[in-house]
Please model this.
Amino acid sequence: MSLDQLIENCKNDDTKAQGELYKLYSGKLFAICLKYSRNYAEAQDNLQDAFLTIFKKIEQYKNKGSFEGWIKRITVNTVLQRYRNEKVFDIINENTIEDVEVEVDEDELSIDYLLKIIQELPDRYRLIFNLYVLDGYSHKDIAKMLDINIGTSKSNLARARHILKNTIEDYKTTQRSQSL
Model:
C-alpha cells in the first residue's frame, strides 16, 4: 500500500491503517520525543499524545509537502505544548550568562551519555537547547513557539550550554582520575 493510500485510509478512521502508520513512523517520532522529554517513560507518553493528535488532525494534511515533516512538526508541538501547560518558562528574570561553546570529543563521550545529560537539563534549558542546537530553529522562532521573549531564549540556551560544559568537564576529570 502506498503512503498516500495509507494516509487516505487513516482519514477514514481505518484502525489497521493507523497501526501501519504508527509502525512506519513511531521510531523516528520516538527519537524526537526522547530528545525533548525528561526520560524514556515521558517520551513514550509524548509519542502516544503525538499520534493521537496526528490521527485527529490527519484530515488537515492535503498531500502538499512532506508528510514526514508534517508529523514531525506535530510531534514537536505536542511535546512543547505539555511544557507550555506546565509553565516551565515562568521564571524569566534571570541574570544573563556568557554563552559558551561545548567541546565534545566523540572518543570520550558516548551518544547515550550526551542524551542522558541533555535530558537531565531543567525543562526550559533542555527544550531551547534542542530546538536551537539540534533542530536549527532561530531564537525568534523559539520565542514564538514557546511564547517567551527572544532574550529568554538566548539566556536559556547560554545556561544550558554552561551546565553541559561543566557536566562534561566534570565527567572528563572523573574519567581521567579513574584511569590513573
Notes: The mean pLDDT is 87. The chain has two domains: 3-85, 111-178.
